[in-house]
Amino acid sequence: MAVLLLALVASDLWIERARVWWDRHSLTSSVVSNLLVLAVTALIVDEVIARRQRQERAVSVAVQGLIVYGQTRRTHDALVGKGGAEMSSSTATDELRTLASMLLTASPNLFDDPVARSFLEEVERFSASMVRMVPRWPTDALSAADRRWLVSEMSRLKEFVDPLLARIPQGDRALLEGGSQA
Q1: Interior CA angle at 28 toward 22 and 29, to 5°?
Q2: Which of 73, 77, 121, 171 has its CB surrounded by the most CB atoms within 10 Å?
Q3: pLDDT score of 87
């Protein structure tokens, strides 16, 4: 579109025969110029609508990322035994299953957004690490080193979710975060 407009202007400026042709065919030149104005207007309106849709989708993706982060935190807490006494390995396994299901559901929406994609990749990496720890857990408890590593990895994951959280309006963020605060 822009190339066509540029070619018409250039031919009008530098090619004498083109300028004479447009002068003789005033109706055609009026129709062409009106169509070009209409096309440029349509492109501008389309871009404004697309920008609004991207902004609305960014908030939706951020909320979905926050939900995934909350489940990741619950899974982490089940593994390291936060909230009192040691939790059973079946509780941690159930939380891991829920996290895996949630990742499968949320992945298509998170994948299209570059910031959400890096968060998704980090959650997938972290959840795979947690899955590797569960099979040895029923026989012996997690070591202090494993617990420290899980806590540090959860803190690292918080760094990846923070850019998503910044997209959510402050009033809504407090309602959504609830118990998923780090």
Answers
A1: 50
A2: 73
A3: 54
